[in-house]
Amino acid sequence: MASVTDDDIIRRRLLIDGEGGNDDKRLNNLLKTFIRWSSAKEEDENTQAMYQRMQAMIGQCEYTLEKGINTYEMNKQEQKNYEKLRQDIENKIEEATARIAEAKTELQLAKCIRKNRQEYDNLAKIIQQQPDRQETTKQLEALDKELSNLVKIKQQLEEKLELRRKQFMVLITSIRELQHILEDDEEKEKEEEMIISAS
Hints:
flat
């Protein structure tokens, strides 16, 4: 026999209880009525009325149970429909994502081609505007000289920066030593005050 889980118990209870229409109470009343009916004497005039009442209560319970089963099946079908709809939406999202990625790649390629064409056009214009070889050689020599000066300036600045860094480290070290001296002085003063207070 398969084990009954808490979910199965709750599902059956909901099917019996319906939508909170006091079906549990109705079943209890049916049970009490059945006990009274079964223990009543056949000649009792209320026996037939109790039997009719039990039939009506059973009909109500069966209706509620059938309604609950139909609702449960409908919910299961709706859940399948929603799952299918969710899967369709996920597939469409994946397709849209793939199309967007492809469009991005194409756009990037188009931008690269456009950029290359612009660079080619600019280079062609620059080449046409360039002076002859002799003038170019003079300009290159001037640029080499300027570059050499810039290298020297950079080296001087780096040396100056290194010097400032060392000076800064010396200053930091001096500040720390001064701080230690001040802390030692404070401790000595506290010790002297404690000695004076104790005496």
